[in-house]
Fold each of these.
Amino acid sequence: MPVRFSLVAQAVVVVLAIVAIAVIPNVIELFAMMQLTLFAAMAVLALSLAFIWGFGGILSFGQTAFFGLGGYAYAISAVNFQDSTPSILLAIIIPALFAAILGYFIFFGRISDVYLGVITLTVTLILFNCVNSTSGDEYRIGKALLGGFNGMPAVPTFNVPFYPDQVLSPEQSWWVTGGALLGVFLLLRLLLSLPAGRIVVAVRENEVRASLLGYDPRKVKLLTFILSGAIAGLAGALYVNWGAFVGPTIFSLSLSAEIIIWITVGGLGTLLGPVVGCVLIEYIVAYIGSQQALNSNLVLGAVLVVFVLLLPKGLVPTARDLLMRLVPAPKAKEQLAEEQVPPSAAASHMAGAE
Amino acid sequence: MALYLIVALDVLNGISLLFLLCLGLAIIFGMMKIINLAHGEFIMLGAYATVISANAGVNIWIAMLVVAPLFVGLVGLIIERCLIRFLYGRLVDSMLATWGLSLLIIGIVTTIYGNTQQGVPTPLGGFSIGSYQSSYYTLFLAGMAIAMMALVYGVMRYTRLGLIARATMQNPAMAATLGVNPTRVYMSTFAVGAAVTGLAGGLVAPVSGITPGMGGAYVAKAFMTVVGGGAAMLSGTMSAASLFGAVNQVGAYFTTPVYGEVLVFTAAIVLIRLLPQGISGRFFKGNL
């Protein structure tokens, strides 16, 4: 009974989210909607790191490598084909391939924690340095001029699939971006409730035990890494679609840091938390940018320090714990039911049920 | 011939600069297994301390060698008491908190001094080899790197203080039962690491543009040098700094400075893949 109830509740929430995405253009102004489109693209990026860090236990300091590759792959192919349909696919496939190569190198070399951080960080720096130095006419791919430090302006934005002349309006762009966010969210939620997702969490919990049960942790981590790279690439395409521009700062360390801040603030080990953290922090940054009194670095840094010290679980898990304490009666049954299943599965269920 | 000499000097310069910039981070990482991602900002603070006191009329040498390390050491002490001491043994949390700290310091310095570039003139003159120019400051930096290495080695190897530090590094619980106070050792180690970083910041002040965001250029390189060097703070850092410094300068000589950097990063990745415990995890086990 509780399981069916929670399924119904989740279905209701999904329907509500779809309705919200659909009606937002009618409710708010164009500027606010454009801002929401940007936040949604960034939230997809947040989800990509939330998945590998929170559930796979892999802290990548260079998630922007895949984000930037996705952005550039989209921009270059959109300029060449003048059609966004194959470009979006390329923006997913190329980062995924790159993640496959890099992940093979990392995980089959059994590199972990700090060392993994160094490698992902340096890869991002390599990409930044290389792309940054591609100014001049000799650096072009097909018709696309890379532009070095200045980036690529006037990138064609999304069009209706296979109809290059029908460019999406801002409303339609919002529907696509918001829909992509919801889609990625549901995909990850579904994956985490399947046996495959439980294996990912099991590897995070105890690699040795997982491998004794017959799973290859290296392969599991590699697949997790590739999926997260693909999602980050999609986020890159959505980001370029929002601004019609891509520049090397897309690879910057400060953006990598920002993703980690979103997740720390929202809550590690959840999917909803990073989305909440992303929208919240991006809103604060945008607000600070519009006035002169405070420096955005100062505020972001203070927020991160305060959260690590005082609220290390993040907003969403803390709020969930508070709610659980307020309404203990209906949840008690569910907890009992969950005690029947193996610990790792229960952990993934708990983690996925924010 | 003159060209080779100049390239050799450049390589020497790259190595000694990298070593000086990494030593403070290596001391903190080697002793406490804390990665201080605000390292670049400690360098920046040292450089600002130098520039501001030099522009206020303090002798440049005193500003560089005394004011910068004292100031940053004090800042490090305060930060250790307020922040780092809650994070020992939590590697990822310490990285996140110090990353936040680095943004905070950048924000504070930007608010006070603005996002503009400052500088001090390079002391000492230049000399020429054949038709090429170099400066005596390059040689001074190399001398400082050697002096710092000797100083750290001497203190760690031959003094009572160094003995206590090494004992705490190896086994804090055992050291505590023998009457050492690990909290105090950690506190002073962090302050010393910060002071050494501040000194490095003071030393690079005359040869680099000083902005609030300048630390970003150093932190990634220092981070990968220290991790690539492994647990031994002196031999590891020295060997990794030599490798990366040489690769950087030679690469920059044959291609462009940008690809020199790219080559260093690639070398770091390959090194960590081949020696996951760092250079000293393989070759200098048990050394300082």
Amino acid sequence: MPAASPTKQPHEPRTRRPFRTGGGGRPAHRGAPRRGRPVFTTRRGLTIAAFMAPAALFVAVFTYYPMIAGSQMAFRNWKLSDLTDKSFVGLQNFRDVFADPAWGTVLSNTAVWVVASIVPQLVIGFALALWLRRRFRFRGLYQALIFFPWAISGFLIGILFRWMFNSEFGVVNDLLQRAGIIDEPVTWLADPDTAMAAVIVANVWYGVTFFAIMILAALQSVPDELYEAAALDGAGKVRTLFQITIPYIRTTLALTVLLRIIWIFNFPDLIFGMTGGGPNNETHIVTTWMIQITQQGDYGRASAIGLLIVASLLVFAVFFLLATREKSEKKSAKKGERS
Amino acid sequence: MTGKETAAGRAVKFAFLGLWLVFTVFPLYWIIVTSLKAPGDIFAFPIAYWPETFSLENYSELFSKADFGTYLANSLIVATVAGATATAISMLSAYVLARFEFRTKSALLMAALVTQMIPAFIALGPLYLLMTDLRLVDNRLGLILVYVAVCIPFCTVMLRGFFENVPDALEEAAMIDGLSHFGALFRVLLPVMRPGIVAAFIFNFVNCWNELFLSVTLMNSDSNKTVPTALNGFISSFNIDWGSMSAAAVLTILPTMVLFAFASRHIVQGLTSGAVKG
């Protein structure tokens, strides 16, 4: 079989592999008939094209076309309110975005939203994964129960927490008052100082499971011999954690965090349901802001923000790909070892 | 971790796990309890953690005052058709990406990855204009087409991971027996892969069922609204009716939770292996 994925070639020598683990870059195999059957290359090409066509068509028309066609709107005066004047305005839309007094708030909110959400998600998710690594009774049930927030949309989670953080009839105030932590009800979502904290609590609630699952999967790849050796050497739990476990799963950790940063950055749903960006724009992040401006009908300015989002995501994507490259090399090396 | 667990260590562990479980489950408990209180009791003090009398009034109001049955039907139709179509299309592309080697393969995978990094709502405006040109605004078919496109990339990556777990000796045998690639896919691979395909469909269904921004943008008339769009209408009004709202939230969450419970193992597998592979 030509150019199979690495899993199917257990005896391959452990050399540095190209990033594309497939055979795309190996001319000797390109176009070679599969499994020694006499198949014409053109026929093979047609099969590939026919199987790929529906997916490619849908994504091209409904995802890529609006994205690419829309980017020129960023340089035009494109407002739903006045469609007669769609003139080219250069960078005016970008200037408008930056000139908006709310923009600074939106940017700093975005930074707070991403950082303050991801740190607790990572720490709690890591702790859960460590504690779930060893079997105990009802572990499967436990995992299923903490898995369930995933089934709920971000928007509905926003609504759930909006109700719990309600200043008059909310359960959060009631619980905190019963516990004696606060004396008076707090107007969580109406107060600029507490609204951001409240949406972040909701986001942490939602995101921990993802980290727990990814890290648990990574932990199960750590060979037991490493732990045994560490125990023989008299290493304590903390030392084992920092000198064995974390270094071993470093790449997965980095990847998970990067993926999550992109994802949280792109996650307006929860804020949209919980505060709608209020009070006074204090919980707007870049993506909710863009959606609000789209809904106001200013497609030019919304596209300008969209391009800014894409540009910043590209920077992250480069990091992501660099990390993936390292990972796929490691993975194939590991597979070689096992055989 | 390996090594002996001390009694104190176990106590800390289970205390933490227990606390997290309570924290995780409580919001769901709370919305269900709220929805089952009589409308007046929701705003009564002190707040009751277990209602004295249960009532289904919030639910009946939801269907009499608001047209919630229509929204549910719309969501069900759109999510089922879009989810199934996306799964079928993704099966073809995933099969090719798992079993063939060709020059543009990595470019195609990259194109799929990009759609995952750049969210669909980035092009809401242009998409609205495109759908206007196609006369598909405020039309369930239009929303279905858009959802299919949104689901395909991740679904393809996920199914590709499942295909790669199936040994290709299976199709080889089938093709020696004279079946085409298409025939091998449908007669031999599909039955073997059924759990993975069901999981992929459920994942698509739940994503479409939950989707908000595209449907808010594309569906205007009340009779075409999906559930999230309707909920968005509920919170946009000045005074939120939390009785109906909580009932609506429960009815929206429950189906997806049941479906996820069925497919969670496969979805986890797809996410932990397929997603990172990109």
